[in-house]
Amino acid sequence: MLIVRSPVRISFAGGGTDLPAYYEKFGGAVLSTSINKYFYTVLQKRNDERIQVISSDLRIMETWQDISCMNMTHSELAIPLAVIKELGCDISVDLFLASQIVVSGHVRIRHNCFIGVNATLRNSITIAPQTLIGAGAVIMKDTVEKGVYLSPRAELFTKQSDEIEL
To answer: Domain span at residue 112?
Structure first.
């Protein structure tokens, strides 16, 4: 059995520019840091020629016989499966994934949004285009386009005029 604990990394800017396909053509810079929360991976051998991946965060468990010839693009576990497939692993394993970061839905962030440090976004909401959310604001529902949310209660403070470009 192999147990790994890795610090969670948060990117503030330049996400994706650390990938060779991008930075080899265009250059790149990333501003990121690790925080005091961790991601855990537990790997254990199996004896039945299957691979089982369990994600406690996503509350998903999937089992496969032969992933080398499978198309996994529609699986919510596509990333760990792609890693196993890319490594050419012809092994039988249980892979358990868990983090100390709560994953409880999707937040849809539209274009040209600015979100301040320590802002909290409730799951299953949409941040409308050109929205400004101040530091420490708590957003509990969908925002309006060009909305400005400043207070911790994060009610709509004002709407930006069309002259302001973000």
So the answer is: 108-159
